[in-house]
Amino acid sequence: MNDPQPAAGTMPASGENPYASPAMSADLVAGVALPASPGKPRIWTVFVALGVMLFAFVAVNIVGGIGLVVWYFAQGGSRDRLQSDLLEFAVQPGPFLMLGLLGQLAIGGVAITAASFSPVPLAERLGLVKSRWTYSTTAVAILGSIVPFAVGLAGAFALTKVLDPDPSVEKMYAAMRPAWALPFLLFISLCPGFFEEMMFRGYVQRRLLERWSPGIAILFTSLVFAAVHLAPHAVLFALPLGIWLGILAWKSGSTWPGIICHALINGLWNVWQLGARFEIFPEDPPLALVVGVGAVGVFAFGAALWLMFRPAPVTELN
């Protein structure tokens, strides 16, 4: 239908809307309401995605467990020894990696699927966009993660005084063979680094930041991130790191700094653990090394906070 035309000679020279009057709403043109301004972004999808992620995580581990049971009986296993044998077998490097990979694929798959339903492009919804930081700022922020890493490690260690840690990881290290070391390091670095960051700092936190204050969004995301580590010691260890990774994603506008940071933390920590297992490194690091790394971390942590929260914006490298 053609738009109605004003009567001849009534068009204002000022360019004002000829159809509006002081008594009419500014949102009305020719008696028809304009589309309403967009409301607040929906965040219920975040909670649906987290619920689906939890279900998928449990489901794939059940499927993996059933697969182990089938394999066990196919190898002539005994029904009477099923539980004890499977508990021992599950902490061998191969099954440990298989179950871990299934869980990570569930987390990453839910993140990608949830983001694909968004009208926002997939990479942008997951934060897989160019960081607004310079390379030097990113490097300082990654070095600064030594402080939240140390805080988390200290909390987990303190908890061992009142609660024995889950022995499965220690048993897995004890069963580790050199042939499994590289696949394990690649898995423990890259899979959580990519999949967990896409889910938590990418999909969940970025969506919550559209409605909630940064502090609440980062804290909520970090609590959920820590909770999925399940074991109490791992939860305490993950919480400070989750908060730091959340700050990195918020201030950089990208999940890439967090992905790199997460991968390096997991990788380097496990390099040290495996080095101690194969007697390449001492089980307890030298005091001078601890002091030196700690000093670098404290300095970088302070510098990173200053770079992220100073009033002037950080210049972006081309």
Structural class: mainly alpha
Ends distance = 50 Å
**What fraction of the residues are assigned to beta strands by DSSP?**
under 5%
Apparent shape: globular
Explain what the structure shows.
This protein is mostly helical. The protein has 12 helices and 2 strands; from the N terminus they run ββαααααααααααα. The chain has helices spanning 44-74, 82-90, 93-116, 122-125, 135-144, 146-159, 168-175, 178-208, 214-227, 232-252, 256-277, 287-309, and strands at 28-29, 32-33. A two-stranded antiparallel sheet has the order 1-2. A hairpin with a 2-residue loop joins β1 (28-29) and β2.
Topology at a glance:
Layout: E1 28-29, E2 32-33, H1 44-74, H2 82-90, H3 93-116, H4 122-125, H5 135-144, H6 146-159, H7 168-175, H8 178-208, H9 214-227, H10 232-252, H11 256-277, H12 287-309
Antiparallel strand pairs: 1-2
Helix pairs in contact: 1-3, 3-8, 5-12, 6-10, 8-9, 8-10, 8-11, 9-10, 10-11
Offer a quick outline of the entry.
The protein is mainly alpha-helical.
What brief labels describe this structure?
single chain, 318 residues, mainly alpha, two-stranded antiparallel ribbon, 2 strands, globular, disordered N terminus
